[in-house]
Write a structure and sequence with these properties.
The complex is a heterodimer. Chain A is 36% helix and 19% strand. Chain A is built from nine helices and 13 strands. In chain A, a hairpin with a 4-residue loop joins strand 11 and strand 12. The longest helix of chain A is centred in the middle third of the chain and has 18 residues. Chain A is globular, with a radius of gyration of 18 Å. Chain A starts with 13 loop residues before the first strand and ends in a 19-residue tail after the last helix. Chain B has a domain of 108 residues: Alpha-Beta Complex (Outer Surface Protein A, domain 3). In chain B, the strands form two sheets. Chain B has a three-stranded antiparallel β-sheet with strand order 3-4-5. In chain B, strands 2-6 form a two-stranded antiparallel ribbon. In chain B, helix 1 crosses helix 3. Classes of the chains: A alpha/beta, B mainly alpha. At the A-B interface, helix 2, strand 6, helix 4 and strand 8 of A face helix 1, strand 1 and helix 3 of B.
């Protein structure tokens, strides 16, 4: 859905991840970009260059926050310091919605800094949904959770990944950041049909879509964000767009990052699949 | 199995240090047989065993945090050498796993931990400790908070009762080795290595020569302010007396109290008659660099 309550009723087009190697290009050339996605944790600091850079970006561009360490799926309570810093950043960026992953990564206050897959159990769904609700109430901004790539499955799982996603978002009444590359990667690693997954996603909850590249190894696929998007992932994207409508889409490219123009060109391939999209105004995204 | 128990057991398996071949260890940190433990938690598929699936996460965890520590402490890596740094980092991260949502804080406990573990630094203990302190201060200074600075116009007639505070991002260090210069050299070497297409062939010998040069250096007491100017971090050498006054101001003493402390300092190298002009010069420099602010 182009605009819904899970993305703050916005109608954003194609975004690009804001990355350090592109800073000078962005400030010198001021390219037209619908919106930038930032990694929240990179800017949850007290001062210095990161915040000054962000403020310069905010002068000209729309920004959406994407987090990597909220760990809604960890059994332990939310980290209050994290939430407090995140809220400060939300006020600074005025992000219309906020995303993080449907995963866990911390135990007893110890952080793995990874996006670990959930055991797909009803208990885990309830714990995760409760924490999403708590975070949303504290942050006062819509939250969408992203399906992660995974390389392992737990014996205790009681349902499929997409059933678990549905359980969580229904209980939390939150949005979905649908990562079609992650669906593809996990489908290959766990032998399921990615279209079954897409068909099960409640389209009215999709706030945003992620696309990315990955790395193929002999016996598994790794979500590395260091390649262009492959054909089968574009096909999944096309299918997703047909189901949910033109939705804010972001290309992730986090390693071996090419030039800004190259990343932007790759991201704009998504336009081909967005016939019904209502892109942001001509100077799209530029305030 | 409850969620909390499952996550605790999986995390223990993932966070158990890798073996010498960078593979998953045979026993978990809790002493259990790794294969049996992982097999009880994770399902295999038609291509990977349960252990191989978990190993993807374990390797990723260790590579990520070791790389991060290496990035944050290039000077310490140069002091210790690559292998010793790797051994030290693995031991530190095993005992002091990340307690923060950001990897920025991964090295926060390293100086304290290193002081308690001379077995990882050998003869270079003091040098390594100084470098670790400097490099952690560098991180804190880089993105620490900044308050409105007092300018020279605010300090035209500073009376003895005036109390001023120091910028929160300013770090003051008393060190036994000239690690400020070493850190700059190590950083240049690391940057050159990263930009070199032939880093595998020239990086090793360059690093080793840096390590050996650092280790040959004799102790030299220095006082350093790690400060930030226009978002870049700088090291500024301080006179001992200058350092002591700044420390006193940071402790909340008035300007008069700080100077009295200096006058009664036996180890002072500044003659009493020169002290006035020196203090004037210090304050002018500090305010110019934006180090002073209201308490």
């Amino acid at each position: 859905m182009p605009a819904n309550r899970f993305n703050g009723f916005t109608d954003y087009g194609i975004g690009i991840g804001l990355r350090i190697p592109h800073y000078s290009h962005i400030f010198e050339r001021q390219p037209v970009v619908d919106w930038f996605e930032i990694i929240s944790e990179n800017f949850m600091v007290d001062g210095g260059r990161a915040l000054a850079t962000l403020d310069r970006i905010l002068e000209r561009y729309r920004v959406v926050q994407h987090g990597v360490s909220m760990y809604f799926g960890s059994a332990e309570p939310l980290n209050r310091e994290h939430l407090t810093r995140l809220k400060r950043l939300v006020k600074r960026t005025k992000t219309p919605w906020l995303t993080d992953h449907l995963c866990w990564g911390s135990v007893d206050g110890r952080y793995t800094h990874d996006l670990l897959p959930m055991p797909y159990t009803f208990e885990a769904a309830e714990v995760t949904a409760r924490k999403i609700r708590e975070a949303r109430d504290f942050l006062e901004v819509p939250i969408a959770v992203e399906n992660v790539s995974s390389y392992a499955e737990f014996h205790v799982s009681e349902m499929t990944e997409w059933e678990f996603l549905n359980e969580v978002v229904e209980r939390a009444d939150c949005g979905i950041l649908l990562d079609v590359n992650n669906i593809y990667v996990s489908s290959r690693n766990h032998n399921f049909n990615p279209y079954d997954y897409l068909e099960a996603v409640p389209e009215e909850r999709v706030a945003q879509i992620h696309i990315a590249g990955h790395s193929k190894f002999e016996r598994y696929i790794l979500d590395t964000h260091d390649h262009p998007v492959i054909g089968p992932v574009w096909k999944l994207y096309q299918h997703a767009i047909r189901r949910v409508g033109a939705t804010a889409t972001l290309l992730e490219w986090d390693d071996r990052i090419p030039s800004f123009d190259e990343v932007q060109a790759e991201a704009r391939k998504a336009e081909e699949y967005l016939p019904a999209a209502s892109p942001a105004p001509a100077a799209s995204g530029v305030k | 199995m409850k969620l909390a128990e499952l996550q605790a057991r999986v995390a223990t398996a993932i966070m158990t240090p890798l073996n010498a071949s960078d593979g998953i260890a045979r026993r978990t940190g809790g002493g259990k047989n790794m294969r049996a433990e992982v097999g009880a938690l994770i399902a295999p598929n038609d291509r990977l065993t349960a252990l191989e699936r978990l190993e993807i996460y374990s390797r990723s965890y260790w590579f990520r945090i070791l790389d991060s520590l290496w990035d944050d402490f290039p000077g310490l890596a140069a002091v210790l050498g690559s292998r010793a740094f790797h051994r030290m980092a693995q031991a530190y991260l095993s005992e002091c796993p990340s307690l923060s949502f950001t990897m920025r804080n991964l090295g926060s406990r390293l100086p304290g931990w290193l002081a308690e573990h001379p077995e990882f630094t050998g003869a270079a203990h003091d040098l390594a400790l100084d470098m670790a302190r400097l490099e952690w201060a560098h991180i804190e200074t880089y993105d620490g908070p900044e308050r409105k600075a007092l300018g020279p116009e605010d300090l035209l007639e500073p009376g003895p009762d005036l109390r001023v505070a120091l910028q929160p991002h300013l770090a003051l260090l008393a060190l036994r080795y000239p690690v400020d210069d070493f850190r700059i050299d190590a950083n240049h070497a690391k940057a050159a290595e990263e930009h070199s297409t032939a880093s595998n062939t020239i990086g090793g010998p360059k690093r080793r020569s840096l390590t050996s040069r650092f280790r040959r250096t004799r102790p030299q007491a220095i006082y350093v302010a790690v400060h930030r100017h226009e978002f870049s971090v700088y090291y500024r050498r301080l006179q001992r007396e200058e350092y002591l006054v700044l420390e006193a101001l940071r402790a909340g003493k008035s300007i008069g109290e700080a100077l009295d402390m200096l006058l009664s300092d036996d180890g002072g190298a500044i003659p009493p008659e020169a002290l006035g002009s020196e203090v004037e010069r210090w304050f002018a420099a500090w305010s110019q660099m934006g180090w002073l602010c209201l308490p």
